[in-house]
Amino acid sequence: MHGKARAFGWLVMAGCTVGAPPGFSSGDRWTFPLVGPLEDGLLVTPATVKGHGPYLFAIDPDANFSGVDKQIVDDAQLRSSGGPKIIDETDTGQIRFYAELIDLKVATLTIARRDVLLFPNGWYDNGGRHINGILGRDVIADSLVFSFDRDQGVATLATTQAFTPPPDAIAIAYKDLSVDADAVAGAAGGGTIVARGNGARSGVVDQAGNGVPGRVGGGGGTVAGGGVLPVPRRLVTAQVGSVKRAMHLDLGSAVSQLPESSWSDAHLTPADVKLRLVDEAASIREVTRVGIADVALGEAKAHDVAFAPFVEARFGNDRVDGALGLDFFRGYSVAAYWDKRTFYLKPRGDAAATVTARLGRWGSALPVCPHVGCATAVIAGDAARPTLEVTRDAEAAGRGLELVLGVTVAGKAPAPLIVELPTGVEKISSPLLPEYAGATLAVLDLSPFVRACPGEGGCALTLDDALTRGKIAAEAPAPPAAPPPTAAPEAPAAPVAPPAPPAVPAKNVPLDKLRRVAGEAAIPPGADAKNAAAGKPFAVAIVRICLAADGKVDSTKIVKSSGVTAYDDQLQAAIKAGWAFAPQDKPEPLCTTATFAVR
User: Fold this and answer.
1) Which CATH class is domain 233-347?
2) What is the largest CA-CA distance in the chain?
3) Would 233-347 and 507-596 be classified into the same CATH topology?
4) CATH 2.40.70.10 describes domain 29-228
5) Beta strands in 250-328 (DSSP E)
6) pTM of the model
7) Which residues contact 355 (CB under 8 A, 6 or more apart)?
8) Which of 204-213, 222-231, 387-396, 588-597 has the highest mean pLDDT?
9) What integer is the mean pLDDT of 118-127?
């Protein structure tokens, strides 16, 4: 923590107001780019805090307020403190810490300050992406209209006066359900927060107007009861498989949810997965099995929606049957008009037809290159062993690149490919399945934000449901070996040792979960690095560090460059020469990442 830890003072909720929430920069519409929009997973956007970053923030309108990880708190030297408990999905009050977030910038939107949840590094990582923060209800505010368009690759916040529903959109009306549905939020005497009811749950915290919490150490009301209730559920009646259920509309979850006890009645098809779900109270739940079904909501329909087991003890199982997550909405552009309690769904178009607009969302953050996507991509090899060859353009050197490649072969369209080119990786060669032989490739998307690869260097992944609705897709399996040539029988050869087992992929562990026993955490730029910088600021650098079983550093790699090659080299040399960690209890390949911000 930085500065003195002080108690939180929470302002009184006065109801929804019209216009931008307090602390927002001027304007009536703010548009920001999405990272990985064609993956149909979590809505993720880059942001900076006090000039540090950019960091990746996931969007969750169900989160009571926004959140940041310890990395941001350390980088930006934010003040932090204890605060009220948050009620999680099991109806348990969880002790949480908070930070004073200052100067949050999301594209053209600047937010002066917010009190936000503080969570450990790596807590919300998803699909191979490192998520540093959450944009919650204090940003995706009730007084605004929130929309996202994956074809354009953007999300938008707009005042109600600046928003016009698309004329051809499907309108889905919903009802709000609070924890105490028979009451209205308001203020008690003396500035005490009251909840949405006057029963057993009265006196728990509800945020100030527009969902904005109070100040770290600020004045104002008191916390009565000492817990934070969930935001209201947005209920609709949907056809899930063969049954109708009261479902919450959840734009903060990649998958949907339904009690496992209902799967049989709804005729869901079970499937094995590997999911890590984090609720708005930052409580974690591991999921290994989902049910698959088609869903209809009025005129809106979605096929093969994945339902994790539903856990929700705060509202009563007889009132909320489940939740429809982003996988239900993946066929639509969505606008959530909170004040009118209406979602507007517009069917998406052809992703190939909107490439120019989608790539343009990054503006000057990406260079002008001779090739679309700042790289060339071809499929080489023969029909049995095709290989993807990707080479970046020289104009895009010194930065991370993530490409999404559409694939067409013999009139069919196999799953698109995602190519990760971290800083310093100029090209990759990745084996593909035979179905990709002879395919034509076209760039569908480009981003400066790369996800972690299973091994060293870059990688190619398959953009399929496993990436966002199950587990991170592994690199394409090696092609089948060519059959040996026919030859005359030979004398029996001497027995040989069996082949070595395949290498176990390295396990990624957050740095704060390891115990460093040697080396300084801070590595300031040396004279050579400062000279090479020639006065320009150093960007935040991220180094991937892989360890041997004895805790010594085995290898390093720059994941995000500081922008100064001499400093990148200094970081890797210092880590290799000086850092060491406590030996592991269970010897296994292990990697972590360290972030360096020069102040």
Assistant:
1) mainly beta
2) 97
3) no
4) yes
5) 256-258, 269-278, 284-297, 300-309, 322-324
6) 0.73
7) 372, 442, 443, 444, 445
8) 387-396
9) 89
